[in-house]
Write a structure and sequence with these properties.
Layout lengths: L5 E6 L15 H16 L4 H6 L2 E12 L8 E11 L2 E10 L5 E13 L2 E3 L2 H6 L5
Antiparallel strand pairs: 1-3, 2-5, 3-4, 4-5, 5-6
Length: 133
């Protein structure tokens, strides 16, 4: 069974590029984060709302693989799938250039859930993301 995929379109801004004219590697983490925030918004919530309830998802590990560079003004699709692995929520990200579909970066972001200051399974996220898990 294939997991449901969330997609969000973005555009490279010139200031995100380095002297070589390609996106600086650190910006891919920003793109992944924007995608997770938009994903949460699509589910009807936000990380801020979650925080106000005492539930804080925090990145515990990031693993990125760079494949093909993006350059200024490139449009791209940032997508994710999500899975539960023990107490962690794992986001599998991919960024594909819109013009040719080339895979530019893929990565895995592991998230731990802190509830009221203590490590938790964060079961509230299972219900929220059930259509994607």
């Amino acid at each position: 069974m294939n997991k449901k995929v969330f997609e969000f379109e973005m555009k490279v801004r010139d200031y995100e590029c380095d002297a070589q004219g390609i996106v600086n590697n650190a910006n891919y983490l920003h793109y992944f984060e924007v995608t997770r925030h938009e994903f949460m918004a699509s589910l009807g919530t936000s990380f801020k709302e979650s925080h106000l309830l005492g539930v804080d998802p925090v990145v515990s590990r990031a693993d990125l693989h760079y494949k093909s560079p993006l350059a200024g003004n490139d449009l791209f699709i940032s997508s994710l799938t999500v899975e539960r692995k023990g107490i962690k929520i794992i986001f599998h990200h991919a960024i594909n250039r819109k013009s040719d579909g080339a895979l530019c970066c893929k990565g895995t972001i592991e998230v731990a859930i802190i509830v009221n200051g203590k490590l938790s399974r964060g079961d509230c996220y299972d219900e929220l993301m059930k259509q994607y898990l």
